[in-house]
Amino acid sequence: MASAEAHLEVEALPHISEGDMNEIRAALEKGDLTAAATKAQEILANEEQIQLHIAVTGESGSGKSSFVNAMRGLQDHEEGAAEIGVMETTMECSPYPHPQDSHVTVWDLPGIGAPKFRPDTYLKQVQFDRYDFFIIISSSRFTCNAATLAKEIQARGKHFYFVRSKVDQDVSNERRLYDEEGVLKAKGKQATETRPQQYDEMAVLASIRQDCERKLARLGIRSPQVFLVCRDDFSMMYDGPRLLQTLLDDLPSQKKLSFLRCLDNTSREVVRQKKKELMKYVWLKSLVVWSIRCSHPWFLYCR
Ligand SMILES: Nc1nc2c(ncn2[C@@H]2O[C@H](COP(=O)(O)OP(=O)(O)OP(=O)(O)O)[C@@H](O)[C@H]2O)c(=O)[nH]1
Ligand SMILES: [Mg+2]
User: Is 161 found in the same domain as 58?
Assistant: First the structure.
């Protein structure tokens, strides 16, 4: 087992606890391959139990169910997708397992202001403890309800993320003020810092982001960060990729692989992290397979 021992570096095998690593190392040093493989199997079995629950909440009609579908890589009309619509549609907490990893569940929560849900008891009613983190969605400026909810989530020690949805609509509304060459149409109106003479999508997005963040700061949220998304091409457009990367970075190490399995290989960073996480599994599974092979009579005979 010289080669296995040579790779017993915590850096090379992330997210195996030091205690587990020491147990495997001690077993290998004693030449007890069966004990090392048993430990490896135990770690793999524990990983199978890990669940990740993502809560999607926000104002009624803000695009929560559409966001749930986008997170799961589904079109709204596809089988298993959450129901969406311009009428109030989500009245219960509905779990949607991710098609690429059933350990990850995206929960579609009722709107913060939905009739059956009072702002002061909302988190209790939706069973706060169930979720790992919260996505708070708004399709316009964030309201007092959203800020109160965020503060309550923070006070209870969990992460939340502000997501400004339907940003494609804002972009196309703003674009209408410019002609085909992208020059501001409005006659007699001066270009401003937020509405330059020449159309600039980045400037439009930056001003929406700043506006939302300023409003949240006024509502008492310290250093708010807002992610602008659109349900179409969610993982590729606007702040979708940055949001997914932030969620991944903030997750505790043992939950990262499940979330990574749900992400498409759209960035080098995602591919790099998948590779790093999978190394652990390759190594643990190899240890188990090697132990089985070594105990096989055929192997003993060959030695
Ligand atoms: N243009 C655009 N429309 C969107 C987007 N996201 C959602 N919508 C539309 O907004 C409407 C409401 O979307 P839902 O996802 O049902 O909103 P919800 O927050 O789940 O609504 P309730 O369950 O009633 O609270 C639907 O017509 C969606 O198609 C988006 O990113 N862009
Ligand atoms: Mg809904």
Answer: yes
Of the residues 59, 65, 91, 169, which should be mutated to test ligand 1's pocket, given the most ligand atoms within 8 Å of the CB? Answer: 65
For residue 163, the surrounding DSSP H or E stretch is strand 159-164
Burial of 285 (0-12, 13-18, 19+ CB in 10 A): middle
| Ligand nearest to the backbone CA of 69 | 1
* Number of domains making up the chain: 2
Q: Whose CA is nearest to atom 23 of ligand 1?
A: 90
CA 241 to CA 270: how far, in whole Å? 10
Closest ligand to residue 62's CA: 1
Residue range of the domain that includes 28: 2-48+269-302
Distance 56 CA to ligand 1 centre (A): 13
| Nearest-CA residue for atom 17 of ligand 1 | 63
Residues 290 and 141 in one domain: no
pLDDT at 1: 44
Per-residue model confidence as pLDDT tens digits over 74-91: 999 999 999 998 776 667
Residues 114 and 224 both lie in one domain: yes
**Does 289 lie in the same domain as 203?**
no
- Domain CATH number, residue 208: 3.40.50.300
Mean pLDDT is lowest, of 34-38, 123-127, 192-196, for 192-196
Provide residues with CB under 6 Å of ligand 1: 60-66, 84-86, 88-90, 111, 165-166, 168-169, 230-231
The torsion of the CA quartet 24, 30, 35, 36, rounded to 10 degrees, works out to 30
Q: Is 43 in the same domain as 160?
A: no
